[in-house]
Amino acid sequence: MYRYDEFDHQFVRDRTNQFRNQADRRLKGELTEEEFRPLRLMNGLYLQLHAYMLRVAIPYGTLSSRQMRQLAFIADKWDKGYGHFTTRQNIQYNWIKLEDTADILDALAEVEMHAIQTSGNCIRNVTTDHWAGAAADEIADPRPVGELLRQWSSLHPEFSYLPRKFKIAVTGAPNDRAAVKVHDIGLRLHKNAEGAVGWEVIVGGGLGRTPMVGVTVRDFLPEHELIGYLEAIMRVYNLYGRRDNKYKARIKILVHELGAEKFKSEVEAEYARRPHASTEVEERELKRIAAYFAAPQLEKLPRWSAAFEEAKLKSPDFARWAKNNLGPHHADGYAIVNISLKPDGGIPGDATSDQMRVMADLAERYSFDELRVSHAQNIVLPHVKKDDLFAIWQALQGADLAAANYGLAGDIIACPGLDYCALATARSIPISQSISRKFANSARQDEIGKLKINISGCINACGHHHVGHIGILGLDKKGEEYYQITLGGSSAENASIGTILGPGFAGHEVADAIETILDTYLKLREPDEEFLAAYRRVGPKPFKEALYATA
Amino acid sequence: MTATEKGQLVTANRLRDGIAVFLTRSGQWSEVIDDAALALEPQAAAALELRAKDDEKATLVTGAYLIDAERREGRVRAAHIRERMRALGPTVRLDLGKQAEGKGAGFAAPEGV
Q1: Which B-chain residues 44-103 have CB contacts (< 8 A) with chain A?
Q2: What is the DSSP letter of A276?
């Protein structure tokens, strides 16, 4: 894992001291709220419905056990004993006091963490594939590039006041688990026939009120050109991106208004003007960073684990969890463990401090001290011996962390919604809970198969509803919550934006509507056809008919 | 049974901890919406708002604004679900927030799902 150097330490400490001073001045009345708001937001501190909320960056979603334990400590000492893992691979605390915040930032700095650039019109925390460095299908670990981008974009003076916030995602695998096509910039690694690797650069994707799938501006960019090229994109955006209307300020609008070809030619012109001298340093720097992400010392193991196979035969519950929650590791005898933070009827992404400590202990003992946060609000143990899986499952069971629904109907993405968020127009968590309870029957979830249900509590789409196979958007209709359903979205390599099915539903009707949709799917699907594939084959008509037949 | 009074009250977040608070008749800030001063006339509402602006300058609260509400039998119900949420705490964690501390109002936030 990446370790802070002297510069990183100093920079985070300086920033924390700066914030302590700013918060003091605000509490004494020397700063007005208007003056203070941008300063606190630059340090991840929002004011929500019930208290301040602190959003802590988890760079490219990677955590050590020590860091996870510190997150638990913060939850206990300064919050109410839990945290919420977000769709940006971050963690949010919901009950923070302004007067405690500088102490919390100090506690984060102790474990090389911070909350810088988790808000504001800057380049936000870079996200990656949560299976990075472990996945069987991976060409290369995307995290060294993630770290390079973190260092490049942290406090970059030219890109600290962009027209709007800016999100970058990176994947090193052909199966896109990082949603790169719906980010401001998405990077996807390719390997050509000669065995060389290069980055596909995708620009102008995004969700929010104007969802768009990004366009590819380069098919195969050599890694050492990455920073220079991204700088050219950022400059074109900084120059032409709209600042008169925040709803039209994201780069996707610029790409759309200019047209992909014109945008691309602007970027290429800018790139051609770049100072070439810097690229060599970047190559050296990239090697230095990559060394921090060296693969762990995996043992040479047989592909087949007798202990694992026997445990599955003995315990059907374990067998089901193993079938659903494990990912294919690149090394024989190892697996990727996906810990679902979605117990039946639970709150997606929430973990108690005790659960955080259990996961930290398991990572330390069984997974080279590493954890990952996924954008689907789950936790990953990336490098686990198959021989150890049964022991891990038992420990997870004891901590209410053994939900065997990874990638199924119960594995719902939901933003905090109106239960916490000042921007929300409707609640999303209770909707998620009602659906989760309806499909709590494991056999039924297994029968339905792979499914992504994503719920947002407002048009800003933190719950990624546009790219859910089934998306749910909560809106306010004359003071009442109601919910729009979309079908056919995907954030994978075949990304698509979902289509609104018809009139919305009241909150208590949503779970039934989802059931009707899934019953319809079960009736019309072909053998082994997943929900998304079936929808793409038949279109919305049969679902519309089933849902609105009585209307 | 007493009549229902409809009017406006002032709410804000306490500066030092962000907790939702409500301006009372005596000019204090209470965590309990039932304690709020309910202005029945626009002039009274404007006066409440003015007092709140002074408390913003005095760094007691931040982001004060008027909301529609009604008082029924001594209990205050905010018109909008968002404000009922602020007066109670999250509906998905009844063990947390004002509702758990006995400071919640006499009304449920929204209907259950």
Answers
A1: 56-59, 62-63, 79-82, 85-86, 89-93, 96-97
A2: G
Residue B113 covered by a domain? no
Number of domains comprising chain A: 4
* d(CA A343, nearest CA chain B) in Å: 14
Looking at the DSSP bridge assignments, the partners of residue B62 are B13
Side by side, the strands of the sheet bearing A370-373 are A62-64, A370-373, A379-385, A334-339, A326-328
With beta carbons under 8 A apart, name residues in chain A contacting B86: 49-50
Residue B73 lies in a domain: yes
Is B20 in Cβ contact with A48 (below 8 Å)?
Answer: no
Q: What is the pTM of this model?
A: 0.96
**A89 touches A130 (CB < 8 A):** yes
pLDDT of amino acid B101 = 87
Going A119 to A125 to A126 to A130, the CA torsion angle's sign is: negative
Residue B82 lies in a domain: yes
Considering only CB atoms, which chain A residues are within 8 Å of B19? 50-51
- The CA angle A340-A346-A349, to the nearest 5 degrees, is 50
ipTM of the complex: 0.94
Place of tokens 């030092």: B16
Tens digits of residue pLDDT in A390-399: 999 999 999 9
> A47 vs chain B: nearest CA distance in angstroms?
7
Position A17 pLDDT exceeds 90: yes
Cα separation, A278 vs B35, in Å, equals 64
Nearest to B34, CA basis, from B5, B64, B1: B5
Chains A, B: CB contacts under 8 A, how many? 87
Tokens for B87, please give them: 């007066």
Q: Do B17 and A47 touch (CB under 8 A)?
A: no
Domain that holds residue B55: 5-88
For residue A286, the model assigns a pLDDT of 81
A311 and A286 within one domain = no
DSSP string, A132-150: TTTBTT-SS-SHHHHHHHH
**What distance in Å separates residue B51's CA from the closest CA in chain A?**
17
If you write DSSP's letter for every residue of A85-129 in order, what string do you get?
A: E-TTS-EEEEEE-HHHHHHHHHHHHHTT---TTSSSSSB---EE-
Give A482-507 pLDDT, tens digit per residue.
999 999 999 999 999 999 999 999 99
